[in-house]
């Protein structure tokens, strides 16, 4: 981690707090105006796409990152593009993957950032911008009720994550990459450091993902069940 960044200092806490505040402000400003909600949704999608393209251009041109390392195969990278697609299309399965993968993955990335460059550099700015935009986009869709996870969708999201990880694992094995930290843990402090050595930390991460996905489902499972009970009474 960058030596000039400290976990849970005022700057870090401010970034974390700003995410729900921005999402809530967008929700409040557009909740009674269908056209404004559409404009906000498309603007968020455009911001995500522009940020993602700028980052991959920077990696290719400035950092010299080439195939296969430049592929967006980290969980947060994939969630980032899924969120942009969900904002554009409101497709249910796309949103569900963005919701579970994005909130769990980017939430953890923001709580325990792995910065490869000093804080006041484009790399670090982009790290916080990308993860924040992802979560803001998902929260905006949720809070404006333009999208929501369906009952049992956490099982679908977990199964899809395992299929995705298996495919990424094959790429890691063939190309010598370390996408999703399937071959080794990150050098910075992270939750994986508490889960043992390879491959046991992968098993632990699977259990944590299942727990987080299940918890993320609960507010919407209860709400749907309550509506069903009211309709039946």
Task: Describe how the helices and strands are arranged.
Blueprint: H1 10-30, H2 34-61, H3 75-89, H4 92-111, H5 122-143, H6 153-175, H7 200-232
Walk me through this protein's architecture.
The protein is mainly α. It has one domain. Helices cover 70% and strands 0% of the residues. The chain is built from seven helices and no strands. The protein has helices at 10-30, 34-61, 75-89, 92-111, 122-143, 153-175, 200-232. Helix 4 (92-111) crosses helix 5 (122-143). The radius of gyration is 18 Å and the shape is globular. Residues 224-233 have low confidence and may be disordered.
How far the N terminus sits from the C terminus, by CA atoms, comes to 56 Å
Q: What is the C-alpha radius of gyration, as a whole number of Å?
A: 18 Å
Low-confidence stretches: 224-233
- Describe the global form: globular
Class inferred from helices and paired strands: mainly alpha
Question: How much helix is in the residues?
Answer: 55-70%
Mean pLDDT metric: 90
Number of domains: 1
Summarize the structure.
The protein has 233 residues and is an all-alpha fold.
Keywords for this entry:
233 residues, mainly alpha, 7 helices
């Amino acid at each position: 981690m960058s030596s000039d960044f400290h976990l849970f200092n005022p700057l870090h806490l401010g970034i974390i707090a700003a995410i729900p505040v921005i999402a809530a402000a967008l929700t409040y400003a557009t909740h009674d105006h269908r056209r404004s909600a559409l404009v906000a949704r498309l603007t968020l999608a455009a911001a995500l796409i522009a940020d993602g393209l700028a980052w991959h251009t920077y990696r290719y041109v400035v950092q010299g990152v080439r195939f296969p390392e430049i592929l967006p195969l980290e969980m947060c990278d994939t969630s980032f593009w899924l969120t942009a697609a969900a904002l554009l299309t409101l497709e249910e399965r796309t949103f569900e993957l963005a919701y579970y993968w994005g909130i769990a993955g980017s939430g953890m990335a923001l709580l325990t950032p792995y910065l490869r460059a000093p804080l006041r550099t484009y790399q670090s700015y982009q790290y916080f911008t990308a993860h924040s935009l992802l979560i803001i986009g998902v929260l905006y869709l949720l809070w404006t009720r333009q999208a929501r996870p369906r009952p049992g969708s956490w099982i679908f999201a977990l199964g899809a994550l395992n299929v995705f990880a298996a495919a990424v694992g094959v790429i890691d094995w063939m190309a010598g990459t370390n996408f999703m930290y399937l071959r080794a843990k990150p050098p910075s402090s992270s939750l994986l450091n508490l889960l043992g050595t390879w491959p046991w930390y992968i098993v632990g991460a699977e259990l944590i993902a299942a727990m987080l996905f299940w918890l993320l489902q609960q507010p919407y499972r209860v709400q749907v069940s309550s509506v069903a009970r009211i309709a039946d009474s």
